[in-house]
């Protein structure tokens, strides 16, 4: 299968190791990965902050960049949710753009959806002999309804010690601009999440969104915790112990 990678701006700028992990993983499974160079931000920051007019050009750019690809994958539940949930509303006043969005949306997948639902695999040939806990991020949990797909992939990793995260479904407090506009509330939510992560005794915290991992990982680092935050794609690809 030929797959187009939408790496997302957060990963492109701050966590390129996640994009490389997706490519290595899919190529190991025998698939071809394209990386359209015209891709940019999906517009989530603008759309979530109420800047509809500023988000529309980014919606248009995404559609133009990926419209000719039969399968698009992104290692980000929040960005895929942006395409699936917000794009139809943002494009509603432009019939041509709305039609293009509706045609593309079903072909955009979060990584675990592509692996489990489309490719039909959970065993990807990974080994990671370390204690790991998993945080289900809000967009993946509540908007994409990923369910246990990422956990099914992680459970199949050889040697992994996957530990349950108490109150896993509670938000970490990031929420993009929420963390800046509501810093006190966000910090309290982060403290609860970090406490739960530390309580598992895990050495690694995995999730499907590097934005949330940055938030939680920052909190863990400031508390001098040795827990390292990694995208689950890096565990599946065997690159979690490499620099990002």
Explain what you see:
By secondary structure, the chain is an alpha/beta fold. The chain has 2 domains: 2-118, no CATH class; 131-237, Rossmann fold (3-Layer(aba) Sandwich), CATH 3.40.50. Helices cover 51% and strands 11% of the residues. The protein has 13 helices and 8 strands. The strands form 2 sheets. A 4-stranded parallel sheet has the order 2-1-3-4, with helices on both faces. A 4-stranded parallel sheet has the order 6-5-7-8, with helices on both faces. Strand 7 (204-207), helix 12 (210-222) and strand 8 (228-231) form a beta-alpha-beta unit. Helix 4 (52-66) packs across helix 6 and helix 11 (183-200) packs across helix 12 (210-222). The chain starts with a strand and ends in a 7-residue tail after the last helix. The model has no long low-confidence stretch (mean pLDDT 94).
At a glance:
With 244 residues, the protein is of the alpha/beta class. It is built from 13 helices and eight strands. The longest helix has 18 residues, at 183-200.
Features:
13 helices, Rossmann fold, four-stranded parallel β-sheet, 244 residues
Strand order of the largest sheet: 2-1-3-4
N-C termini distance: 27 Å
Low-confidence segments: none
* Structural class based on helices, strands and sheet pairing: alpha/beta
Strand-helix topology:
Elements: E1 2-5, H1 9-13, H2 16-28, E2 32-34, H3 44-48, H4 52-66, E3 72-74, H5 77-90, H6 95-104, E4 108-110, H7 111-118, E5 131-134, H8 138-143, H9 149-155, E6 161-163, H10 178-181, H11 183-200, E7 204-207, H12 210-222, E8 228-231, H13 232-237
Parallel strand pairs: 1-2, 1-3, 3-4, 5-6, 5-7, 7-8
